[in-house]
Design a protein that fits this description.
Elements lengths: L5 E7 L2 E7 L2 E3 L2 E2 L13 E6 L2 E7 L5 H4 L3 E5 L9 H18 L11 E5 L2 E4 L5 E2 L4 E10 L10 E7 L10 E4 L6 H13 L2 E13 L4 E12 L9 E8 L12 H10 L10
The protein binds zinc ion.
Zinc ion binds next to loops.
């Protein structure tokens, strides 16, 4: 008998439903969906994982399996800490596609209903307009400064606290890419707008899908060129230049912000392989 089990990524108000056995969590792997699929439920097909098909869908009320304790709802961000990396990534992809589906029920051109065309595209039932999921790119940048280059240990990086951070830690300057600008121009503009600094040597570092709800973070490094920090009050509440020995609270391991900071601190990054 062929193994017909699928991985089911079921979402309920921003959380993913996971199977809890002892202290470990996993994505339900079974033939039938672990929650009822209604006639109107949109079920998203996802790429295979470990030889099993994957599906994602949302429910609006807790299914039986959640009420009886078989499944537990875990925030998508928090699931980073309890799922292997490829499952966390797939949950993010599923969440993004479900978000896209729920926000594109009708055609932006003529207003008629949209119908799935391929696994990741839709077509208007009236005018034929075709759409694909949209990703919103944002940059994030680590800025180095050393006023005494002969003493490398005096090097510092700029950390900021954004008003929308969930707790009292410091992160990096970040912002959405605007239409018509390069990523490097975006880095320079965001740094200028948020801190009134000029930077140079803008270099690509790495990127990370950011499914909250549909972004991608593109990490850069840069060097301080000129100016004194004057923070944009609407977005940031505080900032500072921090040395390796006086780091404040910094973002969690899941974020590229943390990878950029760890890279500078010289820590070995806790990376994909390890999770
Ligand atoms: Zn249309």
């Amino acid at each position: 008998m062929e193994d017909q089990r699928k991985y089911w990524f079921v979402f309920i108000s921003g959380c993913v439903l996971l199977k809890k056995e002892g202290e470990s969590y996993s994505v339900p792997l079974q033939e039938e969906a672990p929650a009822p699929i209604q006639a109107w439920t949109y079920v998203q097909e996802l790429p295979e994982l470990n030889g099993h098909e994957c599906r994602a869908f949302s429910v609006s009320s807790p299914p039986e399996a959640m009420r009886n304790g078989e499944l537990e709802s875990v925030g998508l961000r928090a699931s980073y800490n309890c799922l292997p990396r490829e499952f966390y990534d797939m949950a993010g992809k599923g969440a993004e596609l479900l978000y896209w589906d729920s926000n594109t029920k009708f055609c932006g051109v003529c207003g008629a209903p949209m119908k799935p065309s391929t696994v990741i595209s839709k077509k208007c039932t009236h005018c034929g307009k075709e759409i694909w999921p949209q990703v919103s790119p944002a940059i994030i940048v680590r800025i180095r400064r050393n006023d005494t280059p002969e003493n490398p240990e005096n090097e510092k990086i700029l950390l900021v606290h954004a008003r929308n951070f969930r707790s009292d830690y410091y992160g990096l300057v970040a912002g959405f890419v605007e239409t018509g600008e390069t990523l490097e121009q975006c880095v320079e503009r965001e740094v200028w707008e948020e801190t009134h600094l000029k930077v140079k040597n803008v270099r690509y570092f790495g990127s990370q899908p950011w499914p909250y709800p549909c972004g991608i973070m593109i990490g850069f490094t840069a060097d301080y060129e000129s100016g004194e920090v004057k923070i944009q009050q609407e977005e940031l509440s505080k900032s500072g230049w921090f040395g390796r020995k006086d780091m404040p609270a910094i973002p969690g391991k899941m974020s590229i912000a943390r990878k950029l900071i760890d890279d500078w601190l010289g820590h070995a990054c806790v990376d994909e392989q390890q999770k």
